Amino acid sequence: MATEHNKDILTSSRCPRILVVDDEPRLLRTLADLLRSRDYDVTEALGGREACLQLQQKTYDLALLDLNMPQVDGFQVMKEANQRQPGCGLIVVSGESSFNSVSRALRRGALDYIRKPFDPEELLATVEGVVGKQTLIRDHKRIQSRLEKSEALHRYIVNSSPDIVFMLDETGHICFINNKVESLLGYPTAELCGKHFRHILDDRDVARGTYAMQGPDISADNPRVLEVRLKTRGSRKATRHFEITAFPIDPQSWPQTGKTQGGCTGQPARYYGIARDVTERKEAEAFINFQAYHDLLTRLPNRALFKDRLELAITHARRGQQKLAVMFLDLDRFKVVNDTLGHAMGDRLLQAVTHRLEKCLRKGDTLSRFGGDEFTLLLPCIHGPEDARGIARKLIQALKAPFQLGGHEVFVGVSIGISVFPEAGETMDMLIQNADIAMYHVKARGKDGYRFYSDSMSINTANRLSLERDLRLALERNELRVFYQPQVCSRSNRVVGLEALVRWQHPERGLLYPRDFLPLAEETRLVGKLSEQVIDQACRDVGRWISTGHPDLRLAVNLSPSQVEHPRFVETLMNHVSAHQFPPANLEIEITENVIMNDLEQISQKLKELAATGVRIAIDDFGTGYSSLNYLHRLPIHTLKVDQSFVKAIRGGDDGACIVNAIVAMAHGLKLEIVAEGVETDDQLTYLKSLGCHQVQGFFYGPARPAADITSLLAGDALSLAHTG
Ligand SMILES: Nc1nc2c(ncn2[C@@H]2O[C@H](COP(=O)(O)O[C@H]3[C@@H](O)[C@H](n4cnc5c(=O)[nH]c(N)nc54)O[C@@H]3COP(=O)(O)O)[C@@H](O)[C@H]2O)c(=O)[nH]1
After folding, report:
1. Which residues carry the post-translational modification 4-aspartylphosphate, per the record (predicted)?
2. What is the Cα–Cα distance from 645 to 624, expressed in whole angstroms?
3. Domains along the chain?
4. What is the pLDDT of residues 48-70, one digit of tens each?
5. Which atom of ligand 1 is nearest to the CA of 527?
6. pLDDT for 376-404, tens place per residue?
7. Percent composition of the chain: helix, strand, coil (DSSP 3-state, to 5)
8. ipTM > 0.85?
9. Predicted structure pTM score
10. Spatial contact of 61 and 88, defined as CB atoms under 8 Å apart
11. What is the 80 CA–ligand 1 centroid distance (Å)?
């Protein structure tokens, strides 16, 4: 096929067409016959006029002309031929032999001049020579035109390729690169020709790219395929992703003579290939990958990625005998925002919270959104629990300031459970689960704080299920007991109040304390029912003591956060109180500051309603939370209970003691009653008395005890209280 094609290019297959022009018919015929004897395709023109007509009708390779002809002479025919058929060769055959005529004929384009009478052999040789030359010129032009077309076609194909097409020499310098590099990366081709391909490789891929091209086993059957980032022109950072397929050039199939054909390095091309822009695919892949492992709202790692990182961190920690901490964070009051301001605001809040939390963390830490308003945090390589404690405090503090959401000022808090590897669990699941358990303990104590997991919180899943079942049964079978801890006036040593504290008389496990079951009750929402039973029992017991000679005796009850948050809290509580005809003025509810701050507006309304009935309100654990003067001032608060931790600190004479001074002074200033909790020693009592804090509660006067003990205590001598403790 190629041979046929070449033959077609190189030779003209038709026999040359010759126009013979003379005004003498005899001479004309002789000349024509002579040429026909050599198989030329001959046309006779009798005179110049007919010749011109012929030139208008047909194309000729050659014209043999007489000069002296009547009307239209040979020069005019030459002029016509030059105008109409510039490719037609001209030979003059004339009896005119003056220098002028010859030179004029040659100037008009005659290729040769044969004088009459002519020698037939000489004429045939001249014609053959001119025809051969004409054929060569014509074929050359045709080949050139075909080559130009072919080159244009290939150039068009290469340059309109969607890919970058390139050739490299042995050392990796660019011999050729198509225009696509300009539209994709911004480089004019001339700028890259002769440069090493490293010039456009992203720094991160230079080593890999260079190694790939130097690899020994690259062959036509085994092209080098690799993905790299190429730099865009004029930007130090912007890159696009390309998939490069490079082949070696076989010198056998494309022999190059010294210089690269069409190349610009002066070296033979050794590799050719294409670079396909796969940026969109890579970005789509990256997005899908991101989606699989991240939460799209906060852009934080999701549960799957968190677990993966935790697994890895545990392996490292185990190998290096290090510690790590897992925190389980649950936002407080998020639900209120979501329900009242809508999900869009809820989403914005989660983003803002994420932003603040992230600011508290180091580079290697992993904060993840576990779902809803739950986050988990991995702190790898900590020295000990103190590091985690510091971070937990920072996180809590970071969320203290209000969030501005479309004109609304919103407060949220965070409850954080912490588990430290390896003490609180050696596996990923255990660490997360135990941090979650610890978090529920924070929630049960009024939210917005942190707690470390300890084994005492733990109940494994099986135990947990059986404990939950037991607790449900306990509520049905009335296994809950109410113990009372006296609140004593230190001046008179008289019992002024009783704090109701729940106990569970478990049929197999004996007497259980709130820490053993309250978080579970909170988690399973059984706490509401539990509290109702406690209130009922306490109203019955204390109501009896009130009506039997202790009219001023105060009943203090603890309320769980979820109980207070319930929309019908006031109504439910008052129903129980009135069901037992308990005088509201003898009832004091204890709530923590965090419960109040959970939803200041709602709680404030509820507390006002309660206070209007005569019920008293005490702030439990005062000093450990917000200690905000703002709400103390705005709410109907009657009593502050100084947290045990500050009372304990009295003994050491450290900062805690100063806090007691401050709280007592503040309570006096605001005309609030004050009860100091956890009083265990005479020194603490003396110190508190010296501050003017006369209502105290603690093991100094005795722990919480069953109702029967309280009956005899109230009947006996109040002064003997200290001895019964
Ligand atoms: N929603 C409800 N919560 C309740 C109810 N009953 C108890 N609780 C909550 O459980 C917390 C722990 O209670 P408890 O184990 O009974 O501990 C109380 C006292 O026994 C203990 N205490 C008292 N004096 C001392 C002391 O001198 N030293 C010392 N180490 N501990 C002492 O303190 C607890 C009472 O604290 P407070 O409530 O802050 O006054 C308990 O704190 C409640 O939150 C319930 O019915 N419903």
Report:
1. 66
2. 9
3. 2-143 (3.40.50.2300), 161-284 (3.30.450.20), 294-458 (3.30.70.270), 484-502+540-713 (3.20.20.450)
4. 999 999 999 999 999 999 999 99
5. 1
6. 999 998 999 999 999 999 999 999 899 99
7. 50, 25, 30
8. yes
9. 0.54
10. yes
11. 125
